[in-house]
């Protein structure tokens, strides 16, 4: 197996990237949380404690846990990486040349771990030397931030997603998240873990404006057997999917992309908030959005370097065909209609599968967790009273870098 390879959603998880929230959450306030895509201000100490518990649970399951902030700090030891990332995040066009150039020079001299902290947690006007502002006769912008914090780095699944032998470094839909992509581009290009290894860059790694062709990893499920399931959501567009599919087909890493159209609202912002893969023949679904007979589309290579759109077919038929199983089991969100809606909002369906039939989820989703248990799915629980308020569960908070394919998984 390749060192960085994700062959399924349910094969043994071996290496995962998380991001421990701290400075970016400390900078969430009632006045800025909405624009930073959070519904509320979290208790930082409890959120960090819950995240530490999540990371430790994975380590206890013999999964290698890498932390994004540490990877970024190690990447910034490379002068070329540091110069590129500072130019990308603090350009002359963002700050004006009289400030941008001296600010980049000042930041370039900081220790790598402090620079990583600013590039993920944001930088305020109060944190820079006053001498840098003397050449600026007009007062700086009204925001307290030179660069805003990136609290959504917590959800490492979205910014990049590994699909078979390559990675998609995703053009994010919301301005509050777009700078996250630069941090991941730097890590995958210059960090020693990736610099000397061969892997495919499918999409999002070029210096260009991607316009409406956005894509986020929470919408991407690597089903296995050369199939990828992608949600068309408020964050992932058909334009982005077509570019990714074309690249997957070109590199012969997939032969089918199944499209699931989702409502364009926050309650189901990504496919994995309403559907995840738990075992070879078993999925968790929120039945108000996902139904077995809902029409879904399939993309395949057209034999000329492009893609072919197929007529819609029922979701369950496409999944059975892709997984080579005779019947798919759907476990629906637990409880009555009120409990089900509440638990879906609290990410009952957004679980991380560690190996076939073993998943991690929040302990607060009692009714859904009971249904998992009765269906033979082992649920390992973590606290999510604070983390869950960010609207993301265990799957959202994890980016698998190495996971087994379906070979050897029971059928």
Automatic annotation (TrEMBL):
It comes from the Bacteria. It is found in: Cytoplasm. It is an enzyme of class 3 (hydrolase). Keywords: Arginine metabolism, Cytoplasm, Hydrolase. The keyword Chaperone does not apply. Pathway: Amino-acid degradation; L-arginine degradation via ADI pathway; carbamoyl phosphate from L-arginine: step 1/2. It holds the Pfam family ADI. One of its GO terms (molecular function) is arginine deiminase activity. One of its GO terms (biological process) is L-arginine deiminase pathway. Its EC number is 3.5.3.6. InterPro entries: Arg_deiminase. The active site is at 396 (amidino-cysteine intermediate). It catalyses: L-arginine + H2O = L-citrulline + NH4(+). One of its GO terms (cellular component) is cytoplasm. Belongs to the arginine deiminase family. This is Arginine deiminase. It comes from Rosenbergiella nectarea.
């Amino acid at each position: 197996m390749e060192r960085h390879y994700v062959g399924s959603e349910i094969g043994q998880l071996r290496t995962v990237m998380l991001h421990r929230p701290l400075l970016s959450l400390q900078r969430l306030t009632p006045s800025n949380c909405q624009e930073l895509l959070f519904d509320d201000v979290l208790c930082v100490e409890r959120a960090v404690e819950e995240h530490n518990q999540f990371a430790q649970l994975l380590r206890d399951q013999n999964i290698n846990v890498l932390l994004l902030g540490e990877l970024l700090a190690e990447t910034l030891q490379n002068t070329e990486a540091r110069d590129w990332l500072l130019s990308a995040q603090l350009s002359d066009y963002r700050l004006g040349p009289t400030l941008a150039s001296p600010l980049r020079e000042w930041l370039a001299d900081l220790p790598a771990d402090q620079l990583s902290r600013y590039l993920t947690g944001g930088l305020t006007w109060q944190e820079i030397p006053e001498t840098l502002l003397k050449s600026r006769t007009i007062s700086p912008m009204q925001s307290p931030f030179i660069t805003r914090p990136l609290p959504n780095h917590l959800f490492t699944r979205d910014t990049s997603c590994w699909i078979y032998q390559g990675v998609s470094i995703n053009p994010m839909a919301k301005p509050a998240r777009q700078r996250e992509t630069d941090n991941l581009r730097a890590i995958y290009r210059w960090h020693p873990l990736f610099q000397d290894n061969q892997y495919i860059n499918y999409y999002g790694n070029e210096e260009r404006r991607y316009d409406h062709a956005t894509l986020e990893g929470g919408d991407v499920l690597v089903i296995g057997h050369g199939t990828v399931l992608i949600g068309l959501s408020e964050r992932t567009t058909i334009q982005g999917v077509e570019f990714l599919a074309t690249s997957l087909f070109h590199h012969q890493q997939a032969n089918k992309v199944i499209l699931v159209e989702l409502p364009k609202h926050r309650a189901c912002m990504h496919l994995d908030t309403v559907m995840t893969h738990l075992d070879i023949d078993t999925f968790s679904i929120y039945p108000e959005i996902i139904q077995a007979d809902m029409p879904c589309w399939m993309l395949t290579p057209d034999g000329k370097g492009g893609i072919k759109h197929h007529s819609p077919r029922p979701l369950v038929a496409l999944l059975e065909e892709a997984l080579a199983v005779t019947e798919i089991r759907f476990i629906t969100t637990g409880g009555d209609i009120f409990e089900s809606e509440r638990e879906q909002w609290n990410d009952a369906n957004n679980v991380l599968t560690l190996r076939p039939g073993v998943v991690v989820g929040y302990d607060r989703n009692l009714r859904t967790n009971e249904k998992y248990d009765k269906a033979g799915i082992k649920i390992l629980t973590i606290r999510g009273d604070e983390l869950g308020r960010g609207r993301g569960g265990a799957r959202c908070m994890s980016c698998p870098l190495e996971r087994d394919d379906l070979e050897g998984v029971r059928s």
